[in-house]
Amino acid sequence: MSERPDKARPRVLVLGGGFGGIGAAQKLAESDVDVVLVDKNDYHTFQPLLYQVATGLLEQPAVGHPTRDLFHGQENARIHKDLVTAIDLDKREVQFAELGSVGYDYLLFGLGAEVNFFGVEGAAAHAFPLYTLADAVRLKNHVLGQWEEADKDPSLTEDGALNIVVVGGGPTGVETAGALAELYTGLFRKDYPDIGDDAARITLVEAGPEIFAMFKPELRNYAVEALTKREVDVTTGEVVESVAPTRVRLKSGTELKAHTLVWGAGLQGNALVQSLGIDLERGNRIAVDADLRLPSYPEVFVVGDVAAITDQKTQQVLPQLGSVALQSGEHAGETIARLVEGKEPKPFKYHDKGTMATIGRGAAVVQMLGGRTMKGKSAQLAWGTVHLALLPTNESRAKAIVDWAGAGLTHQRAGRISVET
Questions:
Q1: Helix (H), strand (E), coil (C) string for 241-263
Q2: Which of 41, 204, 281, 322 is deepest in the core (most CB within 10 A)?
């Protein structure tokens, strides 16, 4: 990478173009620094809506936006697509596959997390995670392919070709199971009239005693009822033991015929964190101080899913959510700007806007910080409002509104096509 013309101007190297990285870089727009943002992709992914891409409700451009487009008006920012290969905290250098060695004055580590399969046999090879845009497209194409094959050979349904097991009773698992069920009952039964109504089964498997453990009992019960209404079999207290291409085996000994398993059961920190030579929290997450910095390397900030951030109010580690990533990234950017100006940093304070999830058309749950709850259509409206606000551009918001409105009025999902390359 070329040398800086003015080495006296601090360089802020941002690793990762997710919520955290984008939030930090944009907060440095008016700061007297050079911002270099590097990500392995040339687009920013709105991860909370990936399941809607996987089920054809939204098309790819609604959740994947060109990263460079977000910085057209920011003269002090440069964007590169490359892979991080090594980080030397002592030398303040990051090694990239193509850019080579890049030094920094401040480092923003926001490379995100990776799927955690918890050592389940066959999961890494055969499960379908839902953490990246590529994951979502892969799952959509697979599901469409299963229905096309079953349409040509109906006997495949007897072996579970159309059955899906969704692992994880948190928001990712529940939202995905609900969306898949509506895709099955609302459209595929019309698309493939020769396939019987009972030929496809969706099963949600949760290891704990209940789904939606983060919600109050009334919302958990509502979620189960909403899923059951959509013909999803909710199975709790069961752990997946192994995954094969056409079978899912539970530790209880039950074997499920299913050619698709969607994994929404957990995340762990990016693999690069293990090479940093620092102590890690559970799930390979990096513990940070109140300013979101590494205590032993105060020029390094860690944000997003890879960071173990302790909430100053509850003293609990914050969950891996888009809102946490965005707020932590913005705070890190603001803190670096303050440090460059010779000002003291301020501790990070997370503003909890509530926990929410949508289960299907007209069905959602919201739990506010003060304990207030919402469910049904009003909750779905609140969910939609919050997610639209988090989308990076007005163009993305417009696309989402059009697709959501179409699905709400007609059940139509224009994105349910597969494109082979």
A1: EEECCCEEEECCCCEEECCEEEE
A2: 204
Going from the C-alpha of 348 to that of each of 110, 327, 329, 345, 355, the distances in angstroms are 16, 9, 10, 9, 20
The answer as to CATH 3.40.630.30 being correct for domain 11-40+82-115+268-340 is: no
HSE, CB side, 13 Å, CA atoms: give it for residue 62: 25
264: tokens are 């929404």
- Radius of gyration (C-alpha) of the chain in whole angstroms: 22
pLDDT tens by residue, 347-393:
999 998 888 999 998 899 999 877 899 999 999 888 888 887 777 77
Number of H helices, E strands in the chain: 11, 27
Please provide the size of the chain in residues.
421
Distance of CA 386 to the CA centre of its chain: 16
Task: Tell me the CATH architecture of domain 123-265+354-410.
Answer: 3-Layer(bba) Sandwich (3.50)
Query: Is residue 370 a contact partner of residue 213, using CB atoms and an 8 Å limit?
Result: no
CA dist., res. 126 & res. 129, Å (int)? 10
pLDDT of residue 4: 54
pLDDT score recorded for residue 76: 97
At 403, the pLDDT band (50, 70, 90 cuts) reads: low
How far is the first Cα of the chain from the last one, in angstroms, to the nearest whole number? 33
